[in-house]
């Protein structure tokens, strides 16, 4: 009897760090949200040799590297891994972590290695700064992690996950011609951060505790959106030198327009090039979506894709099949 295992896990938005001063004993501390419309889906089954089937060459290469690493450290059976859906790489949607965790989890399950998600994350080098990707894989929803001790190699622990209110909507704004920072370039940007003022951590933690969390729990969109906006402004000041700057000019132009219309609750996921606008309900989403669409057309802004998504309140889906 042949068996196959299939798993899918969600894309995510990374919404900011609480503490970026590396001189402190505990750093980072992240917030993020699992979203619909983007997922990584993969199936594993016994095969005569190791084989990876995937339309994206970069993702295929990553999976092949993961197989090699497992083969060197564990006794695993030869298998075929087939990717039927994937999250675009380097768009600020968390593709890298989901590729690693889905592949690692499938290999562990298929070979009865009994590795925990935390052990897989550590083994494959995920969660080095943020725990959002690991925790969205596990539970979905709105994730807050504890940060980590300086120089720790373990993924940050989840502090809390909160269900995303069902009425709240999201608009994604992506520059299709650009990629976000990753790999060595990303690491380099973090090493450049020096003498970060303590005011940012104080403001970020205040807005998280007194605005974002109660806004989610009490379904108060206004207070939630204001908290998100302040943390996004602080991230922009730290990384780009100005609270109104983002990773690319086209996104910055659109957000300048949104700001002038007195909306709050928008920003950039991770290093971009994907931005987001949170909306209180479906009607408000349609209003803002149409407004942005008309602005893009009027200003002839190119290479921008708009997409309507929602929060996803569950993590990975794992299915075993016997044929």
Question: Helices and strands in order, then pairings?
Answer:
Layout: E1 3-19, E2 26-46, E3 51-53, H1 57-73, E4 79-85, H2 95-110, H3 117-123, H4 132-138, E5 142-145, E6 148-149, E7 158-162, E8 169-175, H5 183-191, H6 198-217, H7 221-240, H8 249-260, E9 266-268, E10 274-279, H9 282-299, E11 304-309, E12 317-322
Parallel strand pairs: 3-4
Antiparallel strand pairs: 1-2, 1-12, 2-4, 2-5, 2-6, 5-7, 8-10, 8-11, 9-10
Helix pairs in contact: 1-2, 6-7
What keyword list fits this structure?
27% strand, globular, eight-stranded mixed β-sheet, 323 residues, alpha+beta, four-stranded antiparallel β-sheet, 39% helix, single chain
Structural commentary:
It is a single chain. The protein is globular. The chain is built from nine helices and twelve strands. It is α+β, with helices and mostly antiparallel strands. Strands 1, 2, 3, 4, 5, 6, 7 and 12 form an eight-stranded mixed beta sheet that branches. A four-stranded antiparallel beta sheet has the order 9-10-8-11.
Uncertain segments: none
The total of helices stands at 9
**Nearest-integer average pLDDT:** 93
Reading the helices and strands in chain order gives EEEHEHHHEEEEHHHHEEHEE
In terms of structural class, how would the helical and strand content be classed?
A: alpha+beta
**Overall 3D shape:** globular
Largest sheet: 8 strands, mixed
Radius of gyration of CA atoms, rounded to a whole number: 20 Å
Tell me the span between the first and last alpha carbons: 6 Å
What percentage of the residues does DSSP assign to strands (E)? Answer: 25-35%
Number of E-type strands: 12
Helical percentage? 25-40%
